[in-house]
């Protein structure tokens, strides 16, 4: 299981939100590149980056700093937030981003997903953010009519190889992941599931590993110091 340290970017700075709410923001660094390098030096194999401004506006907003991160880090970067067109995907991949995440656009524009998965294959990951089991969109501001599991099956049929599954109610709360929901998702599809939301300690990492996810995104716990990245990586192995 791979541990993905999260670097969430708002106004060019590294921040954390609580349950995706923009008025509940904590700034952890003015330099996201340095933060990415720190996680790499501690043994991270991959970094998970979110353009929060992009997620809210529907257009990439922090591309210069994210591109710099992709160039300076010796490990791959996956990016989500406001990626809504084939052109945007192509631009980001050309700038050195290893994988892009389609979230809202996957719900609103299945043709885009179909085309993106066909054109870029493993470089496109589907992000499913769930609120009470339903898929949320537009920076978590709205809920769609899809269940998370039903939507995952649909994405699998279109050719998705990896899904990042976030339980919004757990995000930034340090209350532990929704293991039941994660296990249900792992059993429902035959593709990689990366768990996101609520990871706060080593026990959470071990529990997720037992559930069968292929990766876990860890954010606030690393920034507050309640979880040590090196120990998390060791537990994940």
UniProtKB/TrEMBL annotation:
HAMAP family: HisA (MF_01014). The active site is at 8 (proton acceptor), 129 (proton donor). InterPro entries: Aldolase_TIM, His_biosynth, HisA/PriA, HisA_bact_arch, Isoase_HisA-like, RibuloseP-bd_barrel. NCBIfam families: 1-(5-phosphoribosyl)-5-[(5-phosphoribosylamino)methylideneamino]imidazole-4-carboxamide isomerase (TIGR00007), PRK13585.1 (NF010112). It is an enzyme of class 5 (isomerase). GO terms for cellular component: cytoplasm. It is found in: Cytoplasm. It comes from Acetivibrio mesophilus. One of its GO terms (biological process) is L-histidine biosynthetic process. The lineage of its organism: Bacteria, Bacillati, Bacillota, Clostridia, Eubacteriales. Belongs to the HisA/HisF family. One of its GO terms (molecular function) is 1-(5-phosphoribosyl)-5-[(5-phosphoribosylamino)methylideneamino]imidazole-4-carboxamide isomerase activity. Its EC number is 5.3.1.16. CDD domains: HisA. Pfam families: His_biosynth (PF00977). It catalyses: 1-(5-phospho-beta-D-ribosyl)-5-[(5-phospho-beta-D-ribosylamino)methylideneamino]imidazole-4-carboxamide = 5-[(5-phospho-1-deoxy-D-ribulos-1-ylimino)methylamino]-1-(5-phospho-beta-D-ribosyl)imidazole-4-carboxamide. Its main location: cytoplasm. This is 1-(5-phosphoribosyl)-5-[(5-phosphoribosylamino)methylideneamino] imidazole-4-carboxamide isomerase. Keywords: Amino-acid biosynthesis, Cytoplasm, Histidine biosynthesis, Isomerase. Pathway: Amino-acid biosynthesis; L-histidine biosynthesis; L-histidine from 5-phospho-alpha-D-ribose 1-diphosphate: step 4/9.
């Amino acid at each position: 299981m791979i541990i993905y340290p999260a670097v969430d970017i708002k106004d060019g700075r590294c921040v954390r939100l609580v349950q995706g709410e923009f008025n509940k923001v904590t700034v952890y660094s003015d330099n996201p590149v340095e933060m990415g390098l720190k996680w790499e030096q501690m043994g991270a194999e991959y970094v998970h980056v979110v353009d929060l401004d992009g997620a809210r506006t529907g257009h990439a907003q922090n591309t210069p700093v994210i591109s710099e991160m992709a160039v300076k880090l010796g490990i791959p970067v996956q990016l989500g937030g406001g990626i809504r067109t084939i052109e945007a995907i192509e631009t980001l991949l050309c700038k050195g981003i290893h994988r892009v995440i389609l979230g809202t656009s996957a719900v609103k524009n299945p043709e885009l997903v179909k085309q993106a998965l066909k054109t870029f294959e493993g470089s496109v990951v589907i992000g499913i953010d769930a609120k009470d089991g339903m898929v949320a969109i537009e920076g978590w501001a709205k809920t769609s009519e899809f269940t998370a599991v039903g939507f995952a099956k649909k994405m699998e049929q279109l050719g998705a190889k990896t899904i990042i599954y976030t339980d919004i109610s757990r995000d930034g709360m340090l209350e532990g992941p929704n293991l039941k929901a994660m296990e249900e998702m792992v059993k429902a599809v035959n593709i990689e599931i990366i768990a996101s939301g609520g990871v706060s300690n080593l026990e959470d990492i071990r529990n997720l590993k037992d559930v069968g996810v292929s990766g876990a995104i860890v954010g606030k716990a690393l920034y507050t110091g309640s979880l040590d990245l090196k120990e998390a990586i060791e537990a994940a192995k």
